[in-house]
Amino acid sequence: MAIVYRRSKGLTDVETHYCPGCTHGIIHRLVAETLEELGVLGKTIGVAPVGCSVFAYDYFNCDMQEAAHGRAPAVATGIKRVLPDKVVFTYQGDGDLAAIGTGEITHAAMRGENITTIFVNNAIYGMTGGQMAPTTLVGQRATTAPLGRDKSHAGSPIRIAEMLATLDGAAYIERVTVTSPANVMKAKRAIKKAFELQLEGRGFTMIEVLSTCPTNWGLTPVKALEWLNENMIPVFPLGVYKDITKKEA
Amino acid sequence: MATGNVTFRQDWCKGCGLCVAVCPKKIIFLDESITNRKGYHPATVKDMDQCIGCANCARMCPDSIITVERV
Q: Closest Cα to residue B19, out of A233, A249, B27?
């Protein structure tokens, strides 16, 4: 028999601290597999965020830099401009990217920085204990919204993929999820395309991945995937929001 | 005759059950007779002869502990 699936060489031999069933692990693996397949592990520099994935620098088998909360795109900008031959990516959650770091990500996309951002959106603050995030759904309960997010008071969730797609500097923006093996394969193709476009020097690329938080949603890992499919996808539709290669076709 | 074979790094398994849910042959289960050093019942296969090596389990495993072989 031949091995058809094994742990990617893009991951270190370190156990993650993520809760059981947290889809961060799947998304880590997809990024790792992409870097391995593109043969760029030796020249990649990742930037880790603050949030649940703060220890991502221990898990990716490439050079990593930790950034202050929300500032990963600014740090990645500096790294890429000084070392333009390197592959540079940021890995950020919604509390990091869509809240404290909204300014940094927006301006990195506006400038068309030639970096790739993996944006993990699970509609809640995970690490700090399940508080309401800018991406929390209307009616979704959080520790700071015990009766559910009230639109009249806290507004509606921010849609980052749609927002950044309006910027000319964005080369490729897609929203995917990892709720089934088929969706995992689609997410992998999206992540790979983003890194390929970076290698071609085409500009800013971001893949938003809808993710689960079984612990703070109060669901089992399997039920959390179902909840995501039923509740998050209608608010955050999957699909390609920007693709500069389409105009040329 | 099995066309596939899966192995689990059981001491790393967190017993989340995502592999159990996506196995088309329903041959993966959480082995309650074992408690690993993390305190979880790890995933295992009871009837490997049925495995088709589709790798659905490995694609969904958040901890990358599943290796899949196919004929």
A: B27
